[in-house]
Amino acid sequence: MSLLLAQVSSEQFTRVSADQISVRRHPSAAIAVVGNPNSGKSTLFNRLTGLRQKTGNYPGVTVEKHVGVVKLENAAFELIDLPGMFALSAHSLEERIACDVVMGRIPDMERPVGIIAVVDTTHLYQGLYLVQQLMELELPLLVALTMTDAAEAGGIRIDIDALQRRLGGITVCPVVATTGQGMDALRAAIATLPDAAKPELPTFWEELQAASEELARDMPATVPRVEIERALIERNSDLAEEVTNYLGDDGAQRMEAIRQRIFGSVPPLANEARLRYAWVRDVLDEVQHSAPTITTWGSHLAAFMNRPVPGTIGLFVVMAVVFQAVFAWATPLMDAIETGTAFIGVLVASSLPDGAVSSFLSDGIIAGVGSVIVFLPQIMILFLFIIVLEDSGYLARAAYLMDRVMRSVGLSGQSIIPMVSSFACAVPGIMATRVIPNRRDRIATILAAPFMTCSARLPVYALLIAAFVPAQSVGLFNLQGIVLFGLYMLGIVTGLLTALMLRKTALHGPKPTFALMLPEFRRPNMQTVLIQLLGRAMIFLKRAGTVIFAVAVVVWALAYYPRSDDIAATLTQQQSLAAASLSDDALSEALSRFENEAAAAQLEQSWLGRAGKVVEPAFKPLGWDWKISAAVIAGFPAREVVIAVLGTVYAVGGEADESTLAGRLQSASWPDGRAVFTLPMVIGLLIFYACCLQCAATLAVIRRETNSWRWPLFAWGYMTSLGYLGALLVYQLGTNS
Amino acid sequence: MINNVNTSDPDIQRLMVLGLVEGAEVELASAAIGGDPMEFRMFGNAISLRREQALQFDVTTAGAGE
Hints:
The structure holds two protein chains of two kinds. By secondary structure, chain A is of the alpha/beta class. Among the domains of chain A are: about 1-195, 3-Layer(aba) Sandwich (Rossmann fold); about 220-265, no CATH class. In chain A, helix 23 (about 455-470) packs across helix 24, helix 23 runs antiparallel to helix 32 (about 680-690) and helix 26 (about 565-580) packs antiparallel against helix 27 (about 585-605). Chain B has a single domain, classed as Roll (SH3 type barrels), CATH 2.30.30. Chain B is built from two helices and five strands. Chain B has helices spanning about 10-15, 50-55, and strands at about 1-5, 25-30, 40, 45-50, 55-60. The model of chain B has no long low-confidence stretch (mean pLDDT about 80). Strand 12 of chain A pairs antiparallel with strand 4 (about 45-50) of chain B.
């Protein structure tokens, strides 16, 4: 192996000359990184590009597009990290995008000038299947053989020379992406990739290859042979339609006649798989020595965790640790951020003269955005766990273990990953449904995901529970903890029942199947984890800086304007009266009381106050006064806003400091003196928050992922009515019985 | 070893693309609680199938799944 590395680097590096570089720097000179899921593709991509990467979307879909730049000694290329795929026959949305990129079928995107096929040495069987298909693309191709260390440890020896020969002469670079071994040779091979000879194609299906040859004569020369073959095999695809159109009027009949002749009654996809895997086995026999019996710590752990009972217990332990960590570890950081924003708010408020500008900065922007930034630690910890669990291969294991449970509500184990992610935030959760191939399963999962208790619901729960649920212990547990757990369970159960209901009605269809590759457990690569985590944090902060910022500004303006001169005049009068008659503590207490009363009076006649009064009758059956109604309405674009609004509305000043806000809530009363926050009302409010879809970002992502307004509108209407009815039921039963 | 595959179901065809074709050696590695779904190993890869899907594959020699 080492001999080969030396040979590749010395021979191929010298071929790069200075005049080629300017061409290579052209931005469209992109190289695609293609490989099976879990082949170490992203680790290799991160190793090659470092932090020189950006994430975007492919046009029209939400599949993330990872692009980076690889800097070589004499050249630079754009690298595209494609979603993991097993074959060119697309199964899920992500696989379809990957296929379209390598075939150059994405609008406004040039076809890559070369392909790096990433193949896991311990999983050559499936890897070589994809490589054989990639060879037919007639693009310069090189193979990066990853995890060669794990293969060696497992006693697998690969004859690289023989492999290169069997792959039509393409370069094969053995690497260990985690340590960087073999990377120099790989970089050298990438530098010359666009000039590399196209691979010689192995024959795997003579009749098909002959037929595509024949059809190609009647088509423009730009239609690659591989597209014609795929069109013949996959008769109902967009590609088949396109290729048929090239043939003119009798295209459909000609294609059908050829299909009849070569395929007969055997499904072509099945036959393709048989023929290709026969070739793969033949290659493996020649290049791979000794049986692949790998015993890493990962496979030992996997073997233990695979046993039904330890596996299921293990899953619950993992979940429990994650939730514990999210609550316990985040607290000190959250306290620090809260103190920080409060300090800045006070600083701003005290250094500026009273008035609209000071209030806008401290109550509007700092309090509004600050109360959301507070969740950053929790979100980061939750994402850290989810990324590590996914990267280590555990989430696939969880999907496997939970399949039976999910089947009882008409879903499959594949829905577990989106649902677990939704505990952090429904937006990435809904995006994670892209791995679910069946559209009905996917939509049912998308509509169940927003019921999972996301990190934005947590502060609302925490505030209300801390204020109204006594902190007494029940057996081993704390009552507050039990209520919180109950709310999480409520979300899970309602979400699953929703999925079940949809699968029985609007999304009725055949039972979802479940086939999942189970990766070995392995230590996650820290670089990959950190890059992903950083990306998530940026998305969250960007959102806090845009959507939530805008909402905070609007809510502040609605709550601040119009100003009543009468109230201001009364306040000045009271202040001067008090200053004349009182002194010291009594004076300052009176002054702050007058200020709060004036603020409350101003609020009541502000636009927000008036709007709250208008909608109050609708929420009165739930036991809500106009202040809560106004806060709830303001929270519809983003539910985490509600804390900031309640803070402003209850005249605590801008910080929404929970302990004071909690105290305010406890003492809030109706004009006739009854307490507003009774236990039935609080539980109703909590149920409302557990169900209601108060999140514009979630609605937008449902719209994008389902490509229609129908589902987001349904989800919004359904979840809001469910929340309203739940709160109504609890309040009315609790108050009148 | 897989002997014969019932190819009529598109989902089974997909499994063939993943490598479950005639001539492949598979081994039943584990099962979740209740014996469903099941985990199979082939050439170093692990794949999870439901029982009803696994039944579409005919195998020779005992102890290697159904």
